[in-house]
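Lay summary. Proteins are chains of building blocks that fold into shapes, and those shapes determine what they do. In this project we predict the shape from the chain. Here is one chain we studied, written as its sequence of building blocks.
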Amino acid sequence: MRILFVTDLHGNIAKYRRVFEAAIKHGVAAVVNGGDMLTLDGDLHGSQRDFIEGFLSPYFAGYEKAGIHHIGFLGNDDLKIHDDVFDETCRKYNHVVNLAQRRFELTDLEFIGMNWVADYPFRLKDRCRRDGPGYVFQEQFGTGLLSTPEGFKELEDWPAYAATLPTIEDELAALPKPAAAGRTIYVIHTPPFGLGLDVINSGEKVGSQAVSRFIEKIRPLLTLHGHIHESPAISGIWKAKIGETVCVQPGQMRANALSYALIDLESMEMERVEEPL
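And here is the predicted shape, written in a compact code that computers can read:
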């Protein structure tokens, strides 16, 4: 079975359409979308909901008609207040799956997803968590923000609030358990630490050590990540291994080009594709 893995499209309609074209061209059974799906234009409280209902819903109808699964979740730049409408939209289609903190079986394979991310300096904290006990916060670019139906709620002391929340380590432990780890694909928006999949423009490694430990313990077949758009361009690495587990992060660097990975889940042969729009 072949899949196409793409991530961090951020509402780029041209990229979405090219993904669907590539899915048809390559005859994949599923497109896996690793998060940060929605537009960043305008008032996100309205524009992101409009993107779900006005674009994603008919877009998903194309997958339904083609018999291709679309498996994905919202990411850290997608406001959490839109989770319900996204879930309702996915449930309209038999071939569309919201994988956030859920398990989905396709043939003899399992997909398990998690869209929480280790905290970063940026203000939107809807899906942010401390990585684990003793986590040291980076210098913040302002007060924290949470989305609410009435607008953004400002958090004067984000570290204190974050201390009341589960950690990434806790969230990973709470995920559905796989029936057979060796036939399981984890889709985790934040990449593991230190494999070259988490390198920002400064050269700093910002991935999750909790995710690295989790992969080492569970030993799944494959893990799929995004979040750090530029990492493959900076490090030159888009796939790596923890033990026998292959970890993939195709990046999404340029607005005028689409990056994705094609993966054969039986042979474990894979390639990263970057093509102009």
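What the prediction tells us: The longest strand covers residues 257-264.
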